[in-house]
Known about the structure:
The protein is mostly helical.
Amino acid sequence: MKSIKVILAAAFLAAFAACKDTAAEKVxxxxxxxxxxxxxxxxxxxxxxxxxxxxxxxxxxEDLLKALDSI
Length: 71
């Protein structure tokens, strides 16, 4: 997941460097980009949590299957 953050940071820097508008417009665009990055980080966190939940449920199912096999 760190590679996603690196890509997002690079995209942010490229977008910011390409901006040739006034200082106020640059600040506004930077805020929009930062909000998008924050949103993507939130999605990434949610996905990580979902993956953890799936892994936990998978372990529970595997444990139950082992218990059934031992009967």
